[in-house]
Each structure stands twice: as structure tokens, then as C-alpha cells.
Amino acid sequence: MANPYQANLPDFHQLDAIEDQFGAAFIRLYQRRPFEQISVSALCKEAGLARSTFYHHFSNTWELRDLLEDNFVAGILKATVDLSRADAKNPNYRRYLTRVTSFIKDNRRLFKAFLVDQPTASFLAKYRASIKYHYYETGCHDDLALEVVANYVITLFRYGLEHDIAIDVVITGKYDRLLKHMLDYL
Question: Looking at 101-151, which runs of residues are DSSP E strands?
Fold first, then answer.
């Protein structure tokens, strides 16, 4: 059976050096001011690049934000895709969590910007779809259970980022037991 969450997954776009520079500048601004107040001029000033350079790569700041969101979610999938395929008969949540926490640690600033500082419905939907995709691949096909797991994972990482707590397999142990109890009732 084809994974129904595949269609909702973003594609990865390899950023060139200029796009990466705009992306880093965008995240710095995104952490300091509301998205609506990030103008192309402010972004170019922060990046130290010309407006014409920005428009050569992007149509507007929305496009840049969407690209950064897509790449983050695609990066998580790339870091964990082999686990879901290799462990289809014996899914290993702890190995998944270890890979995800490592990816998030490496991309903490970006993840905090999108999940805590200014979460958007589009980012949350993409991230939720990626989690559901992963667990569907491991053999869980119950949509409600997938929704519960996805929201649990999002809440866990959001809380950790908000409170500067490193989420790892040790911390999640007691919460995983609660999640298991909830899923047993579904």
C-alpha cells in the first residue's frame, strides 16, 4: 500500500552559497521580529547583499520562508528515512528519536525559529506529515494513532526548545510510556 502522506512531503532544494546567506539572514531576522516586518530591504541589509541578488533567487520573503521550512522538514526525513525502511518489521522509536535529536541539535536555531518563535500552520502541517510518513512506513496505518504520535513529537520538541531542555532518549522514556498507554486505548 502506498504511503498516503508521501504527497504532503516537501522536496529538498540544495541551497547555493547566496541562497544560504539569505537563509541565515532570514532566520536571524525571524528570531527578532514578526515575519510581516521582514522586508526584502531589511533582509538584504542583514545578508550584506543587493536587492537584485535577492530577486534573482526569490520572488519574495514568503518564498524564502517556504523554502527554508521545506528544507528543514526534508532534512529530517533524509536523516531518518533509512530507519523506517530498515525497521518496518521492528520499528525502533529510540533510534528515530536519536537521529531526529541529532539533526535538530545541528539545526537548532532554524527549528526554534519555526517551531517556537513564529510557528506557522504550513510548517506544522509539513512537520506533522513527515512524522506520520515515517511511522506509516514502520507499519502503523491507524490515522488517529499517527496524529497522536505526530502531535506528541512536535509538543516534545517544542517544549524542549522553549525551556532550553535537551530532548533525548532518556528524557522521553517516561513520556513514551504515557504515549503507549494512550495509543493502547485507540
Answer: none
Instruction: Name the pLDDT band for 93 (thresholds 50, 70, 90).
Output: low
CB under 8 Å to 151, separation ≥6 — which residues? 128
Number of neighbours of residue 62 by Cβ within 10 angstroms? 11
For the cut 50, the answer to whether the pLDDT of residue 90 exceeds it is no
Q: How far apart are CA 43 and CA 143, in angstroms?
A: 40
Q: Residue 86 pLDDT more than 70?
A: no
Is-contact 72 85, C-beta < 8 A? Answer: no
What type of residue is 56? H
Instruction: Identify the H or E element spanning 12.
Output: none
The single-letter DSSP state of residue 186 is -
Q: Which CATH architecture has domain 6-185?
A: Orthogonal Bundle (1.10)
Q: Return the sign of the alpha-carbon dihedral for residues 17, 130, 150, 97.
A: negative
Phi, psi for 38 (deg, rounded to 5) = -95, 100
Please name the residues in contact with 180: beta carbons below 8 A apart, sequence gap of 6 or more.
none
Q: What residue segments make up the domains of the chain, in order of their start?
A: 6-185
Q: What is the DSSP letter of 9?
A: P
